[in-house]
Amino acid sequence: MRIVKTATATAAVALSVAGIAACGNSDSPSSETAGSTVNTPAAGSGVEGDQSAPSAISDNKVTIAATEYAFAPAALSATAGKVDFTLQNDGAIEHELVVLKTNKAPADLKEDPKTARVSESRSIGEVSETAAGATKSATLDLEPGKYLFVCNIAGHYKLGMTGTLTVK
Predict the structure, then answer these.
(1) Alpha-carbon gap, residue 154 to 148, rounded angstroms
(2) What is the 3-state secondary structure (H, E, C) of 25-52?
(3) Mean local confidence (pLDDT), 47-51
(4) I want to staple 63 with a disulfide (CB 3.0 to 4.6 A). Which of 75, 86, 105, 162 is the partner?
(5) Mean of the per-residue pLDDT values for the chain?
């Protein structure tokens, strides 16, 4: 009986050590990362290299890719006037793009705890809800200044679906 208890205890310790070693092993995928994807910008999206630098919009037309839960590119600059926004939903769920005129940083927007959405009182316009795999467009007339764009579907903003736009 004593041998069985010792063998069981030894096996439990060995499994615990193996489990701890597996948690610290960065060479093999854990259950948290296995099968997950990293949102990397598509070639030509203007986000290669230094992602902090805004991408200039050519001819005031831009395609913004939406995924769970990011926009690419996430920093843009444009010339005042009519700007054509195309939202390309590369995600698996519905997304939208709401453009807000504000000097605030994305993290400083207030989210309504009841709706999990930010106030659209400063909204200049939007590309409405776009189904997974679909594309929608809108043309907005923008004055010089600072803007944010967000996905204002409940909870998406808080998960990181924001971007900045500087209009000169």
Answers:
(1) 17
(2) CCCCCCCCCCCCCCCCCCCCCCCCCCCC
(3) 38
(4) 86
(5) 76
Cα distances (Å, whole numbers) of residue 132 to 4, 8, 24, 128, 135: 57, 51, 36, 13, 9
Q: What is the pLDDT of residues 131-143, one digit of tens each?
A: 999 999 999 999 9
Report residue 80 as tokens.
């005042």
Residue 4 CB contacts under 8 Å (≥ 6 apart), including other chains:
none
Residues 6+ apart with CB under 8 A from 154: 115, 116, 117
Q: Which tops the pLDDT comparison, 110 or 99?
A: 99
Q: Where are the domains of the chain?
A: 1-36, 55-167
In contact, 146 and 131? CB cutoff 8 Å? no
**pTM above the 0.90 mark?**
no
Length, in residues, of the chain: 168
Task: Pick the more confident residue, 52 or 119.
Answer: 119
User: Which CATH code of 2.120.10.30, 2.60.40.420, 3.40.50.300, 1.10.240.10 fits the domain covering 55-167?
Assistant: 2.60.40.420
Contact 55, 102 (CB under 8 A): no
Residue 118 has pLDDT above 70, yes or no: yes
CA atoms within 13 A on the CB side of 92: 3
Please enumerate in sequence order all residues whose Cβ is within 8 A of that of 125, keeping only pairs 6 or more positions apart, or say none: 98, 99, 138, 140
